[in-house]
């Protein structure tokens, strides 16, 4: 199968940039252009636990892209809570699973009904936000990218199954990725158990999946403690660091590698790609870049879910609108004082493009679960300034061949977005 439009690529390049963990070019650029606030962050990596991975893209005369990555404080051993960024590989794994089941009548649009069979589980038989009132993998994925919907992620986690989800990612070479939990209060044993699921068409069950129990044992040998205190589930203050040892883990370079495997499939080793159809790619491209205000089904309150709600790089800090010529394909996450965004950005007016991924920890009081984080004062401004500096540099950077990004028009923002 030839891969879609713009994204037919070559050049199997590794995204492992450990040798560029503190790249001189990137550091000098950020210090030369950065404000005192940004320089203060850069001068205090232990406090802010930031990591930055920036990838330039240059096209040749055949419009084939070549990549060059730069990193600052990049360290896969430096833990950050990935929050909703794990929703990207979970969505991709769900699409791949559907394709590999090869069941007649089963696809991402087939209504998916979730039952319950273990402690903490809940069932889902209807979805009032969908056009037909029924849940589906496609509709869950759409909500994940539009507003980072947690329940949608939980349902795809359950369809994948904890063991199958992680083993699928490990087989692709993402050995340090660990997805252990839903985004709802559950203990470790409850998260190992995932719900029975049925897919129905015209009232008939086309595929039934029984309850799954994960048998894998994660490597929790490295203890991860953060902060000086935290509030537990009963809202009691515990005066000791919070333990993240058994939480999800998703290193930044793996985040960009997985994003690149979607946007530029042929630029990564075949084993790192997901088994997706042409329609899957087009579906992902549409909803990874669509903004909440452009969605008709569901229709979102744009006061709460403004256009830059989940687009951190230089828009989220001011809640500003994103220009129509800037196409941002991304998945962000935020929790426990950590902010992370992983994006491919293409400017069709000025004809430039790049990949940018970053994370930062902004929790000046050192207390976790108190909902008092420095997102607005430090975190979002960090992404705004970082994005602006790198974007402005890319606008000025000489290129022998300007990229042809015309195929982005096929993923038009105003396209009908019904989930069939």
Notes on the protein architecture:
With 420 residues, the protein is of the alpha+beta class. The protein has one domain: DD-peptidase/beta-lactamase superfamily (Beta-lactamase, 3-Layer(aba) Sandwich), CATH 3.40.710.10. Helix content is 28%, strand content 18%. It contains eleven helices and 15 strands. It has a five-stranded antiparallel sheet, sandwiched between helices. The longest helix has 22 residues, at 375-396. The two termini are 24 Å apart.
- N-to-C series of helices and strands: HHHEEHEHHHHEEEEEEEEHHEEEEH
Q: Kindly state the percentage of residues in helix.
A: 25-40%
Low-confidence stretches: 5-20, 413-420
Question: By helix and strand content, what is the structural category?
Answer: alpha+beta
Question: Into how many domains do the coordinates divide?
Answer: 1
Order of the strands making up the biggest sheet: 2-1-14-13-12
Question: Overall pLDDT, averaged?
Answer: 92
Q: Globular, elongated, flat, extended or rod-shaped: what is the shape?
A: globular
Distance between the amino and carboxyl termini: 24 Å
CATH topology: Beta-lactamase
Q: What percent strand?
A: 15-25%
Evaluate the radius of gyration: 21 Å
CATH homologous superfamily identity: DD-peptidase/beta-lactamase superfamily
- By oligomeric state, this entry counts as single chain
CATH architecture: 3-Layer(aba) Sandwich
Q: What is the top-level CATH class? A: Alpha Beta
Q: Tally the beta strands.
A: 15
Biggest beta sheet attributes: 5 strands, antiparallel
* Continuous helix count: 11
């Amino acid at each position: 199968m030839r891969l879609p439009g713009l994204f037919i690529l070559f050049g199997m390049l590794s995204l492992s940039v450990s040798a560029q963990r503190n790249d001189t070019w990137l550091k000098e650029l950020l210090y030369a252009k950065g404000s005192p606030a940004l320089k203060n962050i850069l001068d205090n990596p232990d406090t802010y636990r930031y990591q930055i991975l920036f990838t330039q893209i240059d096209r040749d005369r055949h419009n084939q892209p070549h990549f060059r990555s730069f990193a600052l404080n990049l360290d896969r051993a430096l833990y950050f809570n990935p929050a909703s960024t794990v929703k990207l590989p979970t969505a991709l794994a769900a699409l791949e699973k559907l394709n590999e089941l090869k069941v007649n009548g089963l696809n991402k649009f087939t209504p998916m009904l979730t039952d319950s069979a273990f402690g903490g589980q809940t069932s889902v038989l209807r979805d009032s936000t969908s056009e037909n009132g029924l849940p589906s993998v496609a509709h869950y994925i759409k909500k994940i990218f539009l507003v980072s919907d947690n329940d949608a992620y939980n349902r795809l986690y359950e369809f994948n199954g904890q063991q199958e989800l992680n083993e699928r990612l490990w087989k692709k070479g993402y050995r340090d990725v660990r997805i252990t939990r839903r985004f709802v209060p559950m203990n470790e044993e409850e998260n190992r158990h995932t719900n029975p699921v049925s897919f129905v068409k015209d009232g008939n069950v086309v595929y039934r999946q029984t309850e799954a129990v994960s048998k894998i044992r994660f490597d929790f040998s490295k203890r991860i403690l953060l902060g000086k205190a935290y509030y537990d589930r009963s809202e009691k203050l515990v005066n000791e660091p919070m333990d993240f040892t058994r939480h999800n883990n998703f290193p930044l370079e793996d985040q960009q590698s997985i994003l690149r495997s979607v946007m530029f499939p042929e630029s990564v080793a075949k084993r790192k790609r997901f088994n997706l159809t042409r329609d899957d790619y087009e579906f992902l491209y549409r909803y990874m870049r669509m903004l909440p205000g452009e969605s008709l089904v569901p229709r979102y309150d744009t006061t709460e879910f403004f256009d830059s709600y989940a687009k951190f790089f230089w828009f989220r800090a001011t809640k500003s609108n994103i220009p129509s010529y800037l196409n941002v394909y991304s998945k962000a996450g935020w929790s426990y004082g950590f902010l992370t965004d992983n994006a491919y950005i293409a400017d069709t007016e000025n004809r430039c493009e790049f990949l940018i991924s970053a994370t930062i920890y902004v929790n000046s009081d050192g207390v976790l679960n108190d909902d008092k984080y420095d997102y607005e004062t430090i975190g979002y401004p960090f992404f705004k300034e970082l994005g602006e500096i790198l974007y402005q540099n890319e606008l000025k950077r000489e290129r022998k061949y300007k990229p042809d990004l015309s195929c982005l028009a096929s993923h038009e923002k105003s396209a009908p977005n019904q989930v069939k």
